[in-house]
Sequence to fold (287 residues):
Amino acid sequence: MNRFENITLICADHYPLSARFYPAQAQEPSNAILICPATGITKTFYHALAEWLSSQGHPVLTFDFRGIGDSLHGRLKDSNASIQDWGQLDIPAAIDTLLQKTAKDRVTLIGHSAGGQLLGITPNHTKVEKLIAIAGSTGHIKGLKGRTKTLAPLMFNVIFPMSNIFRGYGATKFLGMGENLPKNVAKQWAQFCSNPGYVTNAIGQSIFEDFHNEVNTPITVLWTSDDEIATEANVKDLLRLYPNANTHMIEVVPKQYEHHSIGHMQMFKKSHQNIWPVIRAQIPVSS
Fold:
């Protein structure tokens, strides 16, 4: 029997998003958790963690960003979704829906990669009590390491432009990097990672509402020593964007949890659930 409810979120521009709501499986009051996905990753990837948090007494909402998974309506090449839409429209709709369903005042946002990088352009950011960014960083190309440092320039400068021309979307699936991306998402991803600061590279160009200096939400980033994207340098690059927030970094070392690797993705897998109490420990105590 499913322990979640399939629901539809309606954004301010009337775009519908596919979501799952996991009611709390315990009666004691606990913070509502919004899980925001990484670029090209669907809500089903976060099912195990969402179900576990629900069993710990937290109501949880997961969703697909527009243009991804069940929130893609029509052909991918016809999608006009962008990363800025995710921050300015999708995340706000998810926050408000979760608050409505739980009758709470604020949510705790667990953001994976891109899902934890967009608070500074989210209009209702004051409704987030705390941001827990898993593998959260700017992904600045010069701060990458390992195989990703070699692959990223090829993806951003060759694969994306070519696939956008010939297929009408950013090809990532064959690289094992999640779902193929709407063309504007692929373009912005390359733009945002080309210089330090991620989404701030679009401020004054395509993004004209900037809340980074207003955000005073506490932010904790959990990053792993073997992550080739969210490296220490790139995590620090993200946190500097929030000068008025109380920020904290927690390094997770695989061998300390008896894992060979964790990287950018594996912290959410059931095989790595012995790390989940570390995530839960960052959730504020419900008042």
